[in-house]
Design a protein that fits this description.
alpha+beta, about 45% strand, Immunoglobulin-like, 5-stranded mixed beta sheet, 2 domains, 1 helix, globular
Length: about 150
């Protein structure tokens, strides 16, 4: 009789223990699914301008005179989850003219690139802001005139 009692007691403990284990694992899975996802790189602001002073875009526009001498693209990212690189890809008449590799650092970062204007640069332009995996964040279109 005593042997039956001990066996029943052990079975109850084992069953209750596995139930507690199951509840604990389920709770941990639920907790981990409720944690916020890792921050993603987010483009906060992008603009074409005549220049940059103290990381502030000067004279933002979409049409620039060749006489300004240069055009800049200002970009700001917030958040920046880790140190990484982006590209500013400058296209003139749908042909890649140049690209600039720019660094971003956490927690937020602003950067810019510029091109010097020449007489042959008149016409339509576009600038692609691309991320670490060459995904396009944004496209800016602008023109160079007399």
């Amino acid at each position: 009789m005593r042997y039956k009692f001990i066996c029943i007691f052990i079975i109850i403990l084992v069953c209750r223990g596995s139930s507690l284990f199951s509840e604990t694992v389920s709770k941990k899975i639920e907790d981990s699914s409720q944690q916020p996802a890792a921050e993603e790189l987010t483009l906060d602001h992008a603009v074409m301008c005549e220049g940059i002073k103290d990381y502030i875009p000067l004279n933002p526009a979409i049409v620039f005179s060749i006489s300004t001498g240069k055009v800049s693209c200002f970009t700001s990212f917030d958040p920046v989850p880790e140190k990484m690189f982006i590209h500013h890809r400058w296209f003139r008449r749908e042909k890649l003219a140049t690209q600039k590799k720019l660094v971003l650092k956490p927690p937020s970062w602003s950067t810019f690139s510029s091109i010097q204007l020449r007489a042959g640069d008149k016409g339509p332009w576009r600038l692609e802001i691309t991320g670490p995996e060459d995904n396009v964040f944004h496209v800016l279109r602008f023109s160079i005139t007399d």
